Amino acid sequence: MSGKISGLVKAAASVSLAGGILAAAAGPAAAASPNEAFGAQATGLINVAPVAEATSPGTSPVTLANVAIPGLLRAGVVTDTADATHASSRIANVRLNLAPLMSARVRAVTSSCTFDPNTGTVSGDASLVGGSVSTAVPSLMPVHPAPNTVITVPGVATITLNRQTTAADGTLTVDAIFVSLLGTSQTLTVATSVCNAASLAPVPVLPGKALPIGLGGLGVLMLGGLGYQFSRRRRQAAAA
Fold first, then answer.
1. For residues 153-165, average pLDDT
2. How many CA atoms lie within 13 A of 143 on its CB side?
3. Does one domain contain both 179 and 212?
4. pTM for the model
């Protein structure tokens, strides 16, 4: 009897081990924070949380008929989208209030970012159609600005186009327009896209290896169980 109990204990231990192997093989990797996009945000004396924010996982797309931040921004339709590997923000008819009698206008503003699972890298871009700053000498905004292109409005503001910043974990943030009013802490962001340097989809802990190992362990356990049953039947037949 004690031999049978010992065998059952060993079998149970093997089952637990195989189950643990399978669980490890099927378990998801550590979850990444959501990809996101939003139309506008302000920090400083005028403080406004992200407008029309879309996230993945979460809610996407998000559309808003218009957006207004008094003293800083007026704009038309905002469309923000986000999924596991991509995010984009589009906003139409943007008017930035930089100072009394001074403004910047853009007919269409877009930012986007993408995670490439084949290379493990994140890239981003921004475009501005029909953009200009109304200064003494009007300044046109480039349609496809290089990352971190700066336009200075003397004594008033700095405007960074296609502003790209990368966090320590590889997360890329693309702001199509980033305004910093000189002499104050006031900032304004227009059309922001954020992408993580990781896929949000569950993946094996050891891709391509853990699952076969787990299945192999389970196969050995099953063969051992069959062998035990066969041996037991032979002993019973001999005793009869």
1. 95
2. 2
3. no
4. 0.72
